[in-house]
Amino acid sequence: MFLEFISLSSNFVTKLRPTHLRCISSYVGQFAPVSVPSADVDITDELFVEKPPNGGHYFAETKPFSHFLKDNFNRRHNYLRISLTERCNLRCNYCMPEDGTQLTPNQKLLSTEEIITLGRLFVKAGVNKIRLTGGEPMVRKDILHIIDELHQIDGLDTIAMTTNAITLAKRLPALRKAGLTHLNISLDTLVPAKFEFITRRKGWKNVIAGIEMALQLQYSPVKINCVVMRGMNEEEICDFVSFTQNKDVDVRFIEYMPFDGNKWNDKKMVPYKEMLDIITERWPNLERIDDQENHTSKAYCVPGFKGRIGFITSMSDHFCGSCNRLRITADGNLKVCLFGNTEVSLRDALRAGVEEAELMELIGAAVGRKKKQHAGMFNIAKMKNRPMVLIGG
């Protein structure tokens, strides 16, 4: 096994985040690469420290990154989404088939211990962000324990959760204390009656209360996921933009995506450029914001507004080239692509007593088979895949 290092020219200054660089000295100067003696290791990362003024050396620490999480297109997968459950207390029509779906028996779902074991394994390999999804993750009774255990893992910077927020307002203080760092809340309408139509359940006031609690606890920003569907809620796009005027929220308009049982067709899908035209007609001064590395959302803001908006353009303008995400379903299958229909069971490997090295080989083989990009929305619509509720939002 060989070590890969990227040289950094002294003619340029690169700003490194604290998570990328820990140095003993507080001196700020030019950055230079550090050579490391060869060792019997199978994990690497780029390693830089500050170049001291006297030409000496500082010691530095870096979290290694396993080659098993790099695919053939040099994408580094440092973001893991874990679905905690297939169950949900809503029945959103774009997520769950109208006639429901067959749920996996409890004994075939990942146990608490298995979730934590996989979390530790992926963080050890280089993952620094884990998002908990579902179904609805908060219907799982041990969610506080799971977050608390994940919070103890050295090297894990972010523990996020995507939720419908039906029970969030009462439970968020405890989740925050346990270690939940980031929050996404699903909300597709600002009209209570329409909420019941989309979700087939009541609860709009609960979601709004959850958003307010998240703001009160200083989650910044509170991300709001809004799936835009023609004939359903596209006339509310500007209302959602107005929602950002006095609130520290990031409303992300998501293009309607095809999954098993959600009756997708391209006529219902509103492409982001059409959404953008609707918004700029009302706010011609809408400003583009620089996107952060690996972020899925194309970010914008209205000058003077406290919050911001974004577009997740999976269908009309995919971002596969910068994808850094892996998914584990509630029944323990690894999906390297949201729209792919090939899966590898990590649950079965764990229960068979597979050693860590062999498990990483299994993961690495799956990551290595990841394709350059998804098949395109019309082909995806014809492919067999899980309903979204069984994948993890």
How would you describe the overall organization of this protein?
This protein has 393 residues and is an alpha/beta fold. It has helices at 112-125, 143-151, 168-178, 192-199, 204-216, 237-243, 272-282, 346-351, 356-368, 377-382, 388-391, and strands at residues 22-23, 31-33, 43-44, 48-50, 60-61, 65-66, 79-83, 129-133, 158-163, 182-186, 222-228, 249-255, 287-288, 297-301, 308-312, 325-328, 333-335, 344-345. It has a twelve-stranded mixed sheet. A two-stranded antiparallel sheet has the order 1-5. Strand 13 and strand 14 form a beta hairpin. Helix 3 packs parallel to helix 5. The longest helix has 14 residues, at 112-125.
SSE inventory with pairings:
Layout: E1 22-23, E2 31-33, E3 43-44, E4 48-50, E5 60-61, E6 65-66, E7 79-83, H1 112-125, E8 129-133, H2 143-151, E9 158-163, H3 168-178, E10 182-186, H4 192-199, H5 204-216, E11 222-228, H6 237-243, E12 249-255, H7 272-282, E13 287-288, E14 297-301, E15 308-312, E16 325-328, E17 333-335, E18 344-345, H8 346-351, H9 356-368, H10 377-382, H11 388-391
Parallel strand pairs: 7-8, 7-16, 8-9, 9-10, 10-11, 11-12, 12-15
Antiparallel strand pairs: 1-5, 2-4, 3-6, 13-14, 14-15, 16-17, 17-18
Helix pairs in contact: 1-2, 3-5
Give me the side-by-side strand order of the main sheet.
13-14-15-12-11-10-9-8-7-16-17-18
Distance linking N and C termini: 37 Å
Assembly classification: single chain
Structural class: alpha/beta
How many beta-strand segments?
18
Order of helices and strands: EEEEEEEHEHEHEHHEHEHEEEEEEHHHH
Tell me what portion of residues adopts beta-strand conformation.
Answer: 15-25%
Average pLDDT metric: 81
Reported for the largest beta sheet, the result is: 12 strands, mixed
Shape by Cα distribution: globular
Helix % is 25-40%
Flag low-confidence runs. 1-62
Per DSSP, the total helix count is 11
Radius of gyration: 22 Å
